[in-house]
Design goal:
The protein has twelve helices and eight strands. It has about 325 residues and is α/β, with parallel strands linked by helices.
């Protein structure tokens, strides 16, 4: 592996704020639509996001070839402004050896951190001890120069980190980014108490618990809804620093609005971006866009209208 390609200067460049989980646009011939992807990157940046999480579940990474995952990470890193860090996942193999090969290829793209998916490190029926041993194999193989993150991806199953495992992860000194999907205030509080004063930052993926988690030290938001109205998350985080009443109201709206992610994602996000004027088609490898109904489209349009109106309140 050419370790010089990793962006070493970015080891400490994981800003607090909003990190969208990026979607992947496709053409009618089922290829990645890089022209549309460039427009999406520009849209994220125009909406003042703080970092980009490419090659994740929202990106349909389990249905991308290794060549496509590598090309996707490369494109996002090369087209994002220099002040916007880009992290990526993409190790989807069942074997640790296969995952190491995938990690090597994607890390060579120059991304600012490689994010390990917690459910890839052990099967659902395997113990935390097995998970820890498999992660140690990966850590033994890759140099300290590669910053790492962790992502509790819900597919194919959600592997939650116990507090004991998280404590061990922190002790390695290798991890900087945790995308938390616990959706549980008690767990968030316990984790953030542990992470206080460490280099590992927690970014909440759940809108309902986001406001509470910020109060106890969460570094920001990394989730699905930054594909719909990232500007409201940016505003909410700024309000959190200045006006608790307005911030609470903003985050309550974001919590209710996030129900749209259970509708027909990621096709509905692609439709939203169409309505934003981006050249994004609805094609997806994980959902049949032909089953996206007129009623669902109307719901996305109505949410967009209300979201735009909400911006004037803050």
């Amino acid at each position: 592996m050419n370790h010089q390609n990793i962006n070493r200067s970015a080891k400490n460049r994981f800003p607090d704020g909003v990190w969208p989980t990026m979607i992947t646009p496709f053409t009618s011939s089922n290829k990645i639509d890089y022209s549309a992807l460039e427009a999406i990157i520009e849209w994220y940046v125009d909406h003042k996001i703080d970092g980009l999480f490419a090659v994740c579940q929202s990106s349909e990474m389990f249905d991308l070839s290794l060549e496509e995952r590598t090309a996707l990470a490369t494109f996002v890193k090369n087209h994002a402004p220099s002040h916007i860090p880009v992290i990526a996942s993409g190790h989807v193999s069942d074997t640790i050896e296969g995952q190491i090969r995938e990690l090597e290829k994607i890390a060579e793209t120059g991304i600012d951190a490689f994010v390990l998916v917690t459910n890839r490190l052990a099967r659902k029926d395997e113990s935390d001890a097995c998970w820890k041993a498999n992660l140690q194999k990966i850590l033994d193989h890759i140099p300290d120069s590669i910053p790492l993150g962790l992502y509790e991806c819900p597919f194919p199953y959600k592997r939650m980190l116990s507090i004991e495992l998280l404590e061990w992860v922190v002790s390695t000194g290798r991890f900087y980014f945790l995308k938390d999907t616990s959706c549980d205030e008690r767990i968030l509080n316990e984790r953030l108490t542990l992470l206080n004063g460490t280099r590992l930052k927690l970014y909440n993926a759940n809108s309902a618990t986001l406001y509470t988690s910020l109060k106890v030290g969460a570094s920001g938001y990394s989730g699905v809804m930054a594909n719909f109205h990232p500007e409201l998350y940016v505003k909410g985080l700024k309000l959190f620093q200045t006006s608790s009443a307005d911030a609470e109201y903003c985050f309550h709206f974001l919590s209710v609005a996030s129900l749209i992610e259970y509708q027909f994602y990621p096709v509905n996000a692609k439709y939203h971006l169409q309505r934003e004027g981006l050249p994004v088609q609805l094609f997806s490898r994980v959902k049949d866009q032909n089953r996206f109904t007129a009623g669902q489209k109307l719901e996305v349009e109505q949410l967009r209208n209300v979201s735009n109106k909400m911006q004037s309140f803050f």
